[in-house]
User: Which sequence fits this backbone?
């Protein structure tokens, strides 16, 4: 049932078993409307993988991302992140995990407004307990690696979309996480900038071995990943490794 | 994230919306300023009253002649001259009484050279000086021998001396009181107003005997207008009052069951009432001012709630990048606290300058103590924490995914 990995001895970074997610919404009649978004999702993601999750809107891909990112909790089923059962963790421990082990990249960038790029990148370090000057120093180094040191003192609204996303990626990377979760990171960008951002992800995955899970609905973007998972109405309908040859076959 | 860093974040957030921060702070500023101002005015009034009370002398009774009535018409206290110098001397011998000072008084015209001044003339005994708690500005009070020989000596109150002599030193000079020459032997130090508002320094004092025989005259020789009695100590005041009443009833041959033909007033008791009233006033002023502080606090809660709603997405982002609940709680609580502390500081400054202006413009006594400033400040901070906690908690308990989705 699970896709066969080339290296079976590695412990999976993400191990998901029978994950379900229900939303119950209040209605005008007073009876809650129950809508199930995820059905018995099972998933293993090993360290160093670059996974693309695809699906139409409403397929449950964003919900899955939020659960993987410890921003949301499943209704039933289990989720082990780096061999820890996430359901057993307190909100403080979850905050710590989001801070140290996960980096988020969003479609709408989600930078803090009216804060310089430098301070945006430094904020996760502040929450990790570093003092302000040390955080700024490390944040500047991170911006330099992402090629943005000249924009360190710009506020988000003074930057282009691509630059903002680079700042967001710098923020995601600054605590040296094992996992990057990117929710339609190129959704607001033109194709030229998109390929630059994707090249950056590709480089991070290959050179630093960072595990990347990416949600998209564009085939071109999904093509950068080496594994493709398709969701439809809350079910995993396709999950297999892909190579450049298999991609071109699909497209 | 340590407290210092969170404080920096809170300050930054306040700076981002300066107008709103300022307006919220205004509530705090006005509240704290009102508390400081009202407390300082209350304290000033209280100490002014205390000053007047101590200036009267301590442990005093005033004994007044009784009221008389004729054909159903009442003439009021002092309308008959039932008190005598003899009564005064007898009371002075009581164990619980330290001294007495009988007084006859009237008004008289004073002349010195071309200056003249109309004032109250008080005929009394040398004990008046100690009983009233006076001190000398220059010269001395008249003596017992002046009283015995009814010499023409006068002691001037400060105001009378200034009006009559200007810059000239009065002691040793001859003045005329209703055209009779008197030698000025001393000038009393200023005491200010009594509780009733009468200026105690506009007065001239002469021996009782001299006054009775030469100036005010006396329909009933030996009778006096009133006497001041000083008790031995504060503890024996009730005892002294009972002894005075018993002695006077006996001397005036008043039958059991008949009414007194005199009145004994305990000035200490009156003073206590006045101090009590001033205290209540100052508490009331403080309470009224506290209401405005409370309103300011509610304003802070309002604004913080709006701010939490507006910044829901920001809270979500912060949670996604690793902020735990305490960090979010601390950030919003500190924002509220900062508004209070900065507003409190400005309020203290405004309150003190307001108090100073009141003291200058209205000529009122103002007292500002470190205690009341600290109280207002502590109260403001407590309000900040109290009213800031609910919005901050609301922010901290947001679910990360819902906060992030918030538009």
Assistant:
């Amino acid at each position: 049932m699970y896709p066969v990995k080339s290296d079976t001895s590695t412990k999976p970074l993400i191990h998901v078993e029978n994950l379900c997610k229900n939303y119950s919404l209040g209605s005008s009649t007073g009876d809650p409307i129950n809508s199930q978004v995820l059905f018995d999702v099972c998933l293993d993601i090993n360290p160093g993988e670059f996974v693309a999750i695809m699906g139409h809107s409403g397929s449950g891909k964003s919900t899955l991302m939020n659960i993987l990112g410890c921003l949301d909790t499943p209704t039933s089923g289990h989720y082990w992140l780096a061999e820890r059962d996430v359901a057993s963790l307190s909100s403080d421990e979850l905050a710590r995990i989001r801070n140290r082990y996960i980096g988020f990249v969003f479609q709408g960038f989600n930078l803090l407004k009216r804060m310089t790029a430098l301070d945006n990148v430094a904020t996760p370090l502040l929450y990790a307990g570093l003092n302000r000057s040390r955080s700024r120093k490390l944040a500047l180094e991170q911006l330099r690696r992402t090629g943005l040191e000249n924009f360190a003192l710009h506020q988000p609204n003074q930057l282009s979309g691509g630059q903002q996303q680079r700042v967001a990626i710098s923020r995601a990377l600054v605590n040296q996480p094992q996992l990057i979760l990117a929710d339609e990171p190129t959704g607001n960008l033109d194709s030229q900038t998109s390929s630059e951002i994707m090249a950056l992800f590709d480089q991070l995955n290959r050179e630093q071995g960072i595990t990347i899970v990416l949600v998209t609905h564009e085939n071109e973007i999904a093509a950068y990943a080496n594994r493709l998972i398709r969701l439809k109405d809350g079910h995993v309908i396709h999950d297999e490794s892909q190579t450049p040859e298999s991609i071109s076959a699909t497209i | 994230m340590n407290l210092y860093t969170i404080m920096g974040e809170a300050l930054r957030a306040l700076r981002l919306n300066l107008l709103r921060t300022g307006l919220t702070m205004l509530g705090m500023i006005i509240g704290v300023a009102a508390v400081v101002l009202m407390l300082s005015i209350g304290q000033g009034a209280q100490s002014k009253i205390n000053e007047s009370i101590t200036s009267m002398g301590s442990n005093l009774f005033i004994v007044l002649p009784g009221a008389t009535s004729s054909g159903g018409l009442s003439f009021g206290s002092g309308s008959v001259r039932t008190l005598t110098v003899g009564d005064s001397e007898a009371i002075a011998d009581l164990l619980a009484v330290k001294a007495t000072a009988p007084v006859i008084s009237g008004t008289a015209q004073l002349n010195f050279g071309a200056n003249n001044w109309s004032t109250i003339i008080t005929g009394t005994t040398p004990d008046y000086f100690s009983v009233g708690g006076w001190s000398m500005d220059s010269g001395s009070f008249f003596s017992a021998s002046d009283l015995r020989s009814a010499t023409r000596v006068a002691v001037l109150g400060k105001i009378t001396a200034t009006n009559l002599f200007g810059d000239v030193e009065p002691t040793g000079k001859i003045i005329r009181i209703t055209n009779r020459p008197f030698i000025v032997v001393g000038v009393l130090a200023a005491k200010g107003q009594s509780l009733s508002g009468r200026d105690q320094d506009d007065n001239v004092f002469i021996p009782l005997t001299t006054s009775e025989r030469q100036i005010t005259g006396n329909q009933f020789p030996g009778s006096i207008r009133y006497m001041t009695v000083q008790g031995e100590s504060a503890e024996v005041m009730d005892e002294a009052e009972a002894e005075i009443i018993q002695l006077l009833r006996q001397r005036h041959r008043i039958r059991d069951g008949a009414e007194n033909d005199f009145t004994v007033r305990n000035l200490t008791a009156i003073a206590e009432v006045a101090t009590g009233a001033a205290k209540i006033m100052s508490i009331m002023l403080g309470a009224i001012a506290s209401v405005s502080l409370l309103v300011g606090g509610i304003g802070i809660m309002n604004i913080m709630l709006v701010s939490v709603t507006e910044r829901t997405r920001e809270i979500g982002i912060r949670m996604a990048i690793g902020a735990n609940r305490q960090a979010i709680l601390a950030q919003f609580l500190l924002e509220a606290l900062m508004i209070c502390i900065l507003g409190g500081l400005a309020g203290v400054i405004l309150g003190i300058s307001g108090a100073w202006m009141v003291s200058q413009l209205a000529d009122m006594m103002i007292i500002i103590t470190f205690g009341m400033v600290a109280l207002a400040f502590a109260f403001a901070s407590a309000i900040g924490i109290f009213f800031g906690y609910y919005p901050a908690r609301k922010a901290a308990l947001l679910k990360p995914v819902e906060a992030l989705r918030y538009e």
Remarks:
- Chain A touches chain B through 29 residues (CB under 8 Å).
- The CA atoms of residues 135 and 176 of chain A lie 13 Å apart.
- Chain A has one domain: 47-74+91-250.
- Confidence is low (pLDDT under 50) at residues 1-8 of chain A.
